[in-house]
Write a structure and sequence with these properties.
Elements lengths: L9 H13 L3 E16 L6 E7 L6 E11 L2 E12 L4 E2 L10 E8 L3 E9 L2 H7 L11 H5 L5 E9 L6 E8 L14 E10 L2 E13 L8 E14 L4 E10 L15 E13 L3 E12 L10 E12 L4 E12 L26 E10 L1
Antiparallel strand pairs: 1-2, 1-3, 1-18, 3-4, 4-5, 4-6, 6-7, 7-8, 8-9, 9-10, 10-11, 11-12, 12-13, 13-14, 14-15, 15-16, 16-17, 17-18
C-alpha cells in the first residue's frame, strides 16, 4: 500500500526546525514585502512593459532566526532567509530559491565574534550596502552599477569579528561546487572585508576570489576570478553623501559570461547623495559609470552611465511609499543592465547601445 505522506515543503521544514529550536531559544520571524507599479523598458525594440513589480527597494522575504544562550558569553544562532516574488507568491528562481538567500547555523561570542556554516552573503555585500544611496535598493543602486557577480556563497564558513575601535572584519571560505572529479577546485572561494564606523563616517572595503574554469570542453583548467570594492559614506547635517569604486576580473570564456559585462576587466564607480525632506521623507540621487576592456571589431570598449533618483515617504517606522526612476545610457559597445534590489527583476538589453530604464511607484512594509 502506498504511503499518503508528502515531502515537506521548505516552509513546513522551517516550522518544524523552529518549533524544536524554539523550545529553549529565542526565535524571531521577520521580513519584508515590497510591491510596485512599474513602467520598464529594456531599450530594445518592443522592450516597453507595464507590470506589477516586486523587490524594487528591498527583496521581499521571510526570515527565521534564532538564538540560544549557552552561558559564558556564548550563544548558538541560526538564520533561514527565504526570498519570494511578492507579485505571484512564488519562490525566487535559481540559487536563491527556497532558503537560498541565507541558511546558516553557528556560534556567537561577545568576545570573539560569530562563526557560522552554510550559505549567506559574501563580505562584498556589506561593502556595497554601506556605500549605496539606498542600501543596494532601488533601480540604479551600486549593485546595478558594479554588476557584482558573486553576492552569496554556499558550502561556506563565515566569520564576523566583534567591533574593535569602530572596525569590524568579515571573512569567508567556501568549498565551492565540491566536485568529486576534476576540476575539483571549481568554485572554491575566499573573501575578506573590513568596515569602519566613527560617528557619522563609514568606510568599507572587501576583496574576494573564486576558482573558475577558463575554457569549456575537455580543458579543465581553473584560475582566480576576483572582485574588489571600496567606498564610504558621510552624514552631514543636511545631506548624506556616498561614493564607491568596484573592479571585476573575469577568467571564464567570453561566451559564457553575462552579456552585460563581457570584459576581462570591468571597473565602476559611483557618487550619491540622500537629502532629508521634512521629518518623514528623503530624496536620493546617484550617478555611476561602468567601463570594460572588451574589444569587438568596429565597436568602442563598453561603457554605461547610470543615473537614478528616488523619493521615499515614511508612513511609520515599518511602512513607506516610494517613487523611483533610473536609466542606463549605454554606448555602442555596451549592454549594461539595470537592476533593482531583487536581482532576478533586472532589465537586460540584448542589443548593443540599448538604454534600459524603469519608473516604479510602490509600497514597502517591514515586519
Amino acid at each position: 500500500m502506498k504511503s499518503s505522506r508528502r515531502p515537506l515543503t521548505p516552509v513546513a521544514a522551517a516550522v518544524l526546525l523552529i518549533t524544536a529550536f524554539g523550545a529553549q531559544a529565542q526565535v524571531t520571524i521577520s521580513g519584508a514585502m515590497d510591491m510596485s507599479v512599474e513602467a520598464v523598458n529594456t531599450g530594445d525594440p518592443n522592450g516597453k512593459i507595464k507590470q506589477l513589480g516586486a523587490g524594487t527597494v528591498t527583496s521581499s522575504r521571510v526570515a527565521f532566526s534564532g538564538r540560544e544562550d549557552l552561558g559564558g558569553g556564548l550563544a548558538a544562532i541560526f538564520r533561514l532567509d527565504m526570498g519570494i516574488r511578492a507579485d505571484t507568491g512564488e519562490m525566487l528562481p535559481g540559487a536563491n530559491a527556497n532558503f537560498g538567500r541565507t541558511s546558516i547555523v553557528g556560534i556567537e561570542s561577545r568576545k570573539w565574534g560569530q562563526l557560522a556554516l552554510g550559505r549567506t552573503g559574501t563580505p562584498l555585500i556589506p561593502m556595497l550596502n554601506q556605500t549605496d544611496f539606498g542600501g543596494i535598493g532601488y533601480y540604479g543602486n551600486n549593485g546595478s552599477i558594479s554588476q557584482n557577480l558573486i553576492g552569496r556563497a554556499s558550502n561556506g564558513v563565515f566569520y564576523t569579528s566583534p567591533v574593535v575601535g569602530g572596525l569590524t572584519i568579515r571573512a569567508a571560505v567556501s568549498a565551492g561546487l565540491e566536485n568529486s572529479v576534476a576540476p575539483k577546485e571549481q568554485g572554491r572561494f575566499v573573501a575578506l572585508g573590513g568596515y569602519y564606523r566613527a560617528g557619522k563616517l563609514n568606510l568599507a572595503a572587501a576583496y574576494q576570489t573564486s576558482k573558475e574554469r577558463t575554457a569549456t570542453g575537455s580543458n579543465l583548467a581553473v584560475d582566480n576570478q576576483t572582485e574588489a570594492g571600496l567606498g564610504g559614506r558621510y552624514e552631514f547635517a543636511w545631506v548624506t553623501v556616498n561614493a564607491g569604486w568596484y573592479r571585476i576580473h573575469q577568467v571564464t570564456p567570453v561566451a559564457s559570461r553575462d552579456r552585460a559585462i563581457p570584459s576581462d576587466n570591468t571597473t565602476s564607480y559611483w557618487l550619491g547623495a540622500v537629502f532629508p525632506v521634512g521629518s518623514t521623507g528623503k530624496l536620493g540621487l546617484q550617478v555611476g559609470q561602468t567601463k570594460g576592456d572588451f574589444k569587438a571589431a568596429g565597436l568602442p570598449e563598453p561603457k554605461g552611465t547610470t543615473m537614478a533618483a528616488y523619493y521615499n515617504y515614511s508612513l511609520s517606522k515599518r511602512t513607506s511609499l516610494y517613487v523611483n526612476y533610473a536609466r542606463v545610457s549605454n554606448n555602442a559597445g555596451s549592454k549594461l543592465s539595470l537592476i533593482p534590489a531583487a536581482y532576478y527583476a533586472r532589465l537586460r538589453p540584448s542589443v548593443n547601445g540599448s538604454d534600459p530604464s524603469a519608473l516604479a511607484a510602490g509600497i514597502v512594509h517591514l515586519f
